[in-house]
Amino acid sequence: MEGCPRNREIGPKLLDLIPQGRKWYQEDKNNIDQEKKLELRLGPPGGDEEDHSAMKKKNNNTETRNIKMESEDKSFQGFNSNHFSSSNKTSQKRTAPGPVVGWPPVRSFRKNLASTSSSKLGNESSHGGQINKSNDDGEKQVEPKREGMFVKINMDGVPIGRKVDLNAYNSYEQLSFAVDKLFRGLLAAQRESSGGEGEEKPIIGLLDGKGEFTLTYEDNEGDKMLVGDVPWQMFVSSVKRLRVIKSSEISSALTFGCSSKQEKMRH
Amino acid sequence: MTEEEEDSSAKMSEDVKRYLKLDTRSSAAATSEPPCSSSSSASALANNKSRNFKSFEPPCPDHVLENVLENVLQFLTSRCDRNAVSLVCRSWWRVEAQTRFEVFIGNCYSLSPLRLTHRFTRVRSLVLKGKPRFADFNLMPRNWGAQFAPWVAATAKAYPWLEKVHLKRMFVTDDDLALLAESFPGFKELTLVCCEGFGTSGIAVVANKCRQLKVLDLLESEVTDDEVDWLSCFPASETHLESLSFDCVESPINFKALEELVVRSPFLKKLRTNRFVSLEVLHRLMVRAPQLTSLGTGSFSPENVLQGEQEPDYAAAFRACKSISCLSGFRDLTPEYLPAISPVCANLTSLNFSYANISPDMLKPIIRNCHNIRVFWALDSICDEGLQAVAATCKELRELRVFPFDPREDSEGPISGVGLQAISEGCRKLESILYFCQRMTNGAVTAMSENCPQLTVFRLCIMGRHRPDHVTGKPMDVGFGAIVKNCKKLTRLAVSGLLTDEAFSYIGEYGKLIRTLSVAFAGNSDRALRYVLEGCPKLQKLEIRDSPFGDVGLRSGMHRYCNMRFVWLSSCVLSRGGCREVAHALPNVVVEVFGSDDDDDDDTVTGDYVETLYLYRSLDGPRKDAPKFVTIL
């Protein structure tokens, strides 16, 4: 679940950096915009098509402040990108980062209107809010009550667990990208606090065993397996929780706690 | 505090003195509501506790006085007034307790069922609320609690003449419903709002055994489909049913049984069907119940599309139901049939379109005739244009709720400040608004604050987090500030958008009547929380999520928690130490901390960070039924 960094060492340090008064939000806008520019994305550079607010327009004159902002950026990122979720300011349509639990605050039975309303619209008016979604099976089906399929995800070396909504993704690549977004800042913060480099490095190679980390999961039978072997939908229907482990520890991580599932290991 | 038996008349003046001393530290009366102070009735309860309940018998006081009092108090229905009466002296307390027939418990964990049944001996109606509101949005793990079971067990023994039970956000099982149906022969009204844990089999038992049943209202509850034909379980004779609402029941029903039930329910005024009821079925029901005042129209879609004369005359059916003042349903609306409701539009006071994807062009011909509407719920598919049409006609509008058709942060958002401003200009008598949108301006919000002075409830949800005024780029502080400043009757406020501490300083300064405050993704620092806790004396329910408030902010409200119903803080920056501090300082407040899951493995939580804090006052200490993942500090 999205939330504040749980590492105490991050908290006080960042809160100190938040200056009081109105100035903060001005800087925050700039920081968030800066984050946008600095973030690693799957899209082409500069292709920031999504503009949720007029913030972008207002920040045209902040180019010159960029350099000064940079140092604050780094420390803000760990806090901001995770807590204040500027993830909604990135090109969501392309990469669909995980939605936040319970937001917007709409009860579950109101959430499925877009998917269950049939295309029985009498008039062809194209007024804004009219959304024509055709429902092929206009059967009387029980509306799914869950708003998303949230599973827990932990990462070695990061004490804070998160949650991801698997329904928000359609492929392993998207999931892998989301994992990177979720944990990159936290991992860097964790490393910084334990005396290492606080620089944020993208978390890549989760699926092919080539990166520093590998994504594994526990299925509904309790078996621990590498992510990526089965078709996506099959994975989604059987996964119970996820874990990002150090690639060097793949063999021990997968056998621990299982009876004899060696055949599931890739190597 | 030990008590001695004394001459009661001498005691009375002492009682008065003692009860009038407002001791905030020992206040925790669950059955009282502000603005009356609740502290003294708590000490009254505490006094009694030190004595053995059963053996306490006062030396004969003035019987005449008590009888007179009893007769007078029968007329007192407001629980606020009754709480005040109970504070006068011990004998008034006793008489009040004997004559209180309706009990309201805003938080089921603020007292034990035993305390309820000991104090009030003749209860006929019980209103019980369980989980806090954020539980509706998956912020609370399942199996957290709020079980109805201990309450039904206690009341089954103590109140054989119980007639009415109204539950909100409680966990109710089929067994609980069965016990209820069996224990109260005169049972008349069951209302379950936002409840879960039961299914159609539980409903069937209630239908079958509660022979005096007048009201069976299932609202926004989760009802499992046990494949039981519960409608056939009503007794075959004439029923006393006045209200039957099952629009949240997501399972098919026996139409014939429903029709027959309606025929033998001459007192039926409110019928809210579920989405499995087609237009044809609805037509048959309407024809048999033209006396209906409130109708939930089901799917509002025909099962089969017939041509010409073969099709039932739906408009005629509506014309025949001259008393309909409240319409809802439209779960799967076929737009061509919407005009059928036109005959009743002029008399409508309440219209709920919030399940129907209605465009402005579909809305306008209908709303044009709805001059008397007081309550209007819709989806944002009606657009700003639709809201303008509402503003042009619905001059009597008191409550407006606009829900998002596509409730995602990055959805289109067809309504904005334009619609809000139009409503404010057209509907000057507006008292309550819930508005979901993607873009808003301080200007529109300020306009509403100036045009609608009667507002008591203002809930604005800008769905994108931290979104500023989309025209000026500024935070929404000024708009919300205007609301709290100009709407002097405001008791409930929900804020959203980009907000700094400044917004909260306004809330603290002007929100003197605010009882419920909802905050999400807002504020800069603990100062914001402090402004609110120090500035809003009437605050009862505070729910906050994902905001940068920590131990310092939490500490600033210590003086208030005993006088509040609850405080919820999730995904903020609280530490266990900070929460423990509150728990130790306030023995009458229960401090619960938990994560978002039901499993209690610790590897997701460093010892100190608190994901969710839920605190509430309680007369009977921490609850015994807390699941493992909940820690009570």
TrEMBL record, chain A:
<keyword id="KW-0805">Transcription regulation</keyword>
<feature type="compositionally biased region" description="Basic and acidic residues">
    <location>
        <begin position="134"/>
        <end position="143"/>
    </location>
</feature>
<feature type="region of interest" description="Disordered">
    <location>
        <begin position="26"/>
        <end position="143"/>
    </location>
</feature>
<comment type="function">
    <text>Aux/IAA proteins are short-lived transcriptional factors that function as repressors of early auxin response genes at low auxin concentrations.</text>
</comment>
<feature type="domain" description="PB1">
    <location>
        <begin position="148"/>
        <end position="247"/>
    </location>
</feature>
<feature type="compositionally biased region" description="Polar residues">
    <location>
        <begin position="113"/>
        <end position="133"/>
    </location>
</feature>
<feature type="compositionally biased region" description="Basic and acidic residues">
    <location>
        <begin position="65"/>
        <end position="75"/>
    </location>
</feature>
<feature type="compositionally biased region" description="Polar residues">
    <location>
        <begin position="77"/>
        <end position="94"/>
    </location>
</feature>
<keyword id="KW-0804">Transcription</keyword>
<feature type="compositionally biased region" description="Basic and acidic residues">
    <location>
        <begin position="26"/>
        <end position="40"/>
    </location>
</feature>
<dbReference type="InterPro" id="IPR053793">
    <property type="entry name" value="PB1-like"/>
</dbReference>
<keyword id="KW-0927">Auxin signaling pathway</keyword>
<dbReference type="InterPro" id="IPR033389">
    <property type="entry name" value="AUX/IAA_dom"/>
</dbReference>
<protein>
    <recommendedName>
        <fullName>Auxin-responsive protein</fullName>
    </recommendedName>
</protein>
<comment type="subunit">
    <text>Homodimers and heterodimers.</text>
</comment>
<dbReference type="InterPro" id="IPR003311">
    <property type="entry name" value="AUX_IAA"/>
</dbReference>
<comment type="similarity">
    <text>Belongs to the Aux/IAA family.</text>
</comment>
<keyword id="KW-0539">Nucleus</keyword>
<dbReference type="Pfam" id="PF02309">
    <property type="entry name" value="AUX_IAA"/>
</dbReference>
<keyword id="KW-0678">Repressor</keyword>
UniProtKB/TrEMBL annotation, chain B:
<dbReference type="InterPro" id="IPR032675">
    <property type="entry name" value="LRR_dom_sf"/>
</dbReference>
<feature type="domain" description="Transport inhibitor response 1">
    <location>
        <begin position="122"/>
        <end position="167"/>
    </location>
</feature>
<dbReference type="Pfam" id="PF18791">
    <property type="entry name" value="Transp_inhibit"/>
</dbReference>
<keyword id="KW-0927">Auxin signaling pathway</keyword>
<protein>
    <submittedName>
        <fullName>F-box protein FBX14-like</fullName>
    </submittedName>
</protein>
<feature type="domain" description="COI1 F-box">
    <location>
        <begin position="62"/>
        <end position="100"/>
    </location>
</feature>
<dbReference type="InterPro" id="IPR041101">
    <property type="entry name" value="Transp_inhibit"/>
</dbReference>
<dbReference type="InterPro" id="IPR006553">
    <property type="entry name" value="Leu-rich_rpt_Cys-con_subtyp"/>
</dbReference>
<dbReference type="InterPro" id="IPR041567">
    <property type="entry name" value="COI1_F-box"/>
</dbReference>
<dbReference type="Pfam" id="PF18511">
    <property type="entry name" value="F-box_5"/>
</dbReference>
